[in-house]
Amino acid sequence: MKRHPIILSAYCHNLFSYCLHRNSSRARFTFVRFSSSSSFGLPGTRYFPDYSPKKPSIKDSELVHHISTVIKQRRCEPFRRILKPFESKFRMDHLIWVLMDIKNDYGLVLNLFDWSCIRRDPSVEARCILIQIAVAAKDLKMAQKLFHEFWTKPNIDSHVSVSQFLEKLIYTYKDWGSDPYVFDIFFQALIENGRIHDARKLFDKMLNYGVVLSLDSCNLFLSRLSKDIDGPKMSLKVFSEFSEVGIEWNTVSYNILIHTLCQARNVREAHGLLLQMELRGCIPDAISYSTVINGYCNQGELQSVLKVVENMQHKGLKPNAFTFNSIILLLCETGKLADAEKVLREMISQGIFPDNAVYTTLIDGFGKIGNVTSVFRMYDEMRSRNIIPDFITYTALICSLCQNGKVGEADKLFHEMLNLGLKPDEFTYTTLIDGYCKAGEIKTAFSLHNEMIQMGLIPNVVTYTALVDGLCKKGEIDTANELLHEMCEKGLVLNIYTWNALLNGLCKSGNLMQAVKLMKDMEVAGIRPDAFTYTTLMDAYCKTGEMAMAHQLLHEMLQRGVKPTVVTFNVLMNGFCMAGMIEDGQKLLNWMLEKNIMPNSTTYNSLIKQHCIRNDMRAATEIYRGMSHQGVGPDENTYNILIRGHCKARNMKEAWFLHKEMDEKGCDLTVETYNALIKGFIKRKKHIEARELFEEMRKKELSIDKETYSTFADMNYDEGNIDLTLVLCDEAVENCFVNNTKSGRT
């Protein structure tokens, strides 16, 4: 199901936050510190300046002294009350002067700052001073809040640039806090507000003062770079440049860079970086390997995935939930459902329990290959583990049932989904509408279409294409055309599938001339016919016996670079054989083999059937052997055609051998083949074999004709088995007369 690459969304979403905060409590203060007198070993290292604010006048000094004394002596009283007498005279300069007097009393500092902010916005200098005091007091939340307020509130000094703010922060650093982490918080605030360029300038500026920012901050910077268009290029550049100035990258750092490269589909480069980690003194963890595995999974490189998993296990690392999820998703997408389930079992055996997304992926995968039994086995297992299915799970179940013709069961699940309060989306409705259209229940499909609109959901081109296809298959071409006009009026652009649905409808209803015209209209509308378009039209020509036109279409396809499918060749092959042009059919097969176009069993069956009709079993057997020589296995139809051919030619030994071979492979005989075998054996007086086949038919409740019943009733009567004779007579009356009467036949 196309939407269920969400199976790894949690992994992608949480990787950065997990990496950055995994060791945050321990690593917060592990950055390199340098005092004002220290040197980073680089020429031109600067010292932090001494703070020298504007000096107060005698009058201002007296006011500052009064305010400081009042707030110290009456600290338990509300500041609005005790500072009421000073409001008219209080300026921002007074705030800084008072802060100088009370900076060691953090509670008073916050109360005074809050009081001053009620009256007017603080100056950049005052804000930087409070940030310095907050960091020194280890109140990092307050420092972060002051930084973020400055960049997010439009009324606060919006004209001040980042460089001007930084200069004030440097200016106030030495005398108001001297904790280098203040620059980390500023750096992180810039990153979180999207100011990546300014953050890089800050990093470089701090190097001039001998300060290298913390590893956590650098990891945050690295992770944010990954979201930009030039993420991989810039991340690699920063990774190299920061290393040169003293940043010792850790496993988290490498994981971020590996993830960035994988996101950009540079998985080989990411894998190379993973292999280099240990050489650079950094040990990869489960996340390192899982990220590369996920990258290879997204590119469908299963062999590379298996190699990385093997290396991971060799290092003693256990795959985590994300590793298993990635592999299961890839195996499901490539149709390797048995292997996907093995991975699921391995996952559970290691104590890692799958979630809703994993089971939904498996349900969707089994549905696509038509294995409905496994679909519901997965669903039952999911429920037994108390994993609640969501609307995506239900949609996968509904899709699986519809694709396998079980639209009634799909409808039950749809209503179960509604009763649980889950809201279906456009995809869910479209899936069910398509299911009803394929089942020929057009009225129900349109009813769902109307219900969908009432729910506020907008039908898309896929929804309308399903309806057009359903109408065409019912022969309602005019109604389908009306629907196409409605689509155009709604601004929906018809796609190739819509045109093909209408073309198929015209061909099925015998409007071949209109179908040809429609194909020309497609090209005028800018839609290039595909293999399905040509094959549909070719099939119509074949069924009307116009083989020259069908053959011409094949040449046109090849000239225009449209690659025919094996279905295209099978249509043409069947056309040749139905028209009695068996030699042309043989030439087509030889041409396919020369061009390395692999035929399938259907291709060969057309030729075998025609030779059987001509009673040329030698030629039919040669085709059958040639089929095996090319590695194409016979299907049920192959066996049934050959057995009937041999029966007709009275080669009962060959027919019986093929029947036994068929039985060993689990293939079933058709009613016609059973009848042919039975009649052939009776003519050859092989009553034991005939009776065995007759009993098989009875056991399977197959439709036996009157002539066969009559033959075995007479046979049992002659043998004196009156009871069985009467039973067979009753069955013949029930199956050949009563049932035929009920169905309107005589």
UniProtKB/TrEMBL annotation:
<feature type="repeat" description="PPR">
    <location>
        <begin position="670"/>
        <end position="704"/>
    </location>
</feature>
<feature type="repeat" description="PPR">
    <location>
        <begin position="320"/>
        <end position="354"/>
    </location>
</feature>
<feature type="repeat" description="PPR">
    <location>
        <begin position="179"/>
        <end position="213"/>
    </location>
</feature>
<protein>
    <recommendedName>
        <fullName>Pentatricopeptide repeat-containing protein</fullName>
    </recommendedName>
</protein>
<comment type="similarity">
    <text>Belongs to the PPR family. P subfamily.</text>
</comment>
<dbReference type="Pfam" id="PF01535">
    <property type="entry name" value="PPR"/>
</dbReference>
<keyword id="KW-0677">Repeat</keyword>
<feature type="repeat" description="PPR">
    <location>
        <begin position="250"/>
        <end position="284"/>
    </location>
</feature>
<dbReference type="Pfam" id="PF12854">
    <property type="entry name" value="PPR_1"/>
</dbReference>
<dbReference type="InterPro" id="IPR002885">
    <property type="entry name" value="PPR_rpt"/>
</dbReference>
<feature type="repeat" description="PPR">
    <location>
        <begin position="600"/>
        <end position="634"/>
    </location>
</feature>
<feature type="repeat" description="PPR">
    <location>
        <begin position="530"/>
        <end position="564"/>
    </location>
</feature>
<feature type="repeat" description="PPR">
    <location>
        <begin position="635"/>
        <end position="669"/>
    </location>
</feature>
<feature type="repeat" description="PPR">
    <location>
        <begin position="285"/>
        <end position="319"/>
    </location>
</feature>
<feature type="repeat" description="PPR">
    <location>
        <begin position="495"/>
        <end position="529"/>
    </location>
</feature>
<dbReference type="InterPro" id="IPR051240">
    <property type="entry name" value="Mito_RNA-Proc/Resp"/>
</dbReference>
<feature type="repeat" description="PPR">
    <location>
        <begin position="565"/>
        <end position="599"/>
    </location>
</feature>
<dbReference type="Pfam" id="PF13041">
    <property type="entry name" value="PPR_2"/>
</dbReference>
<feature type="repeat" description="PPR">
    <location>
        <begin position="460"/>
        <end position="494"/>
    </location>
</feature>
<feature type="repeat" description="PPR">
    <location>
        <begin position="390"/>
        <end position="424"/>
    </location>
</feature>
<dbReference type="GO" id="GO:0003729">
    <property type="term" value="F:mRNA binding"/>
</dbReference>
<feature type="repeat" description="PPR">
    <location>
        <begin position="355"/>
        <end position="389"/>
    </location>
</feature>
<feature type="repeat" description="PPR">
    <location>
        <begin position="425"/>
        <end position="459"/>
    </location>
</feature>
<dbReference type="InterPro" id="IPR011990">
    <property type="entry name" value="TPR-like_helical_dom_sf"/>
</dbReference>
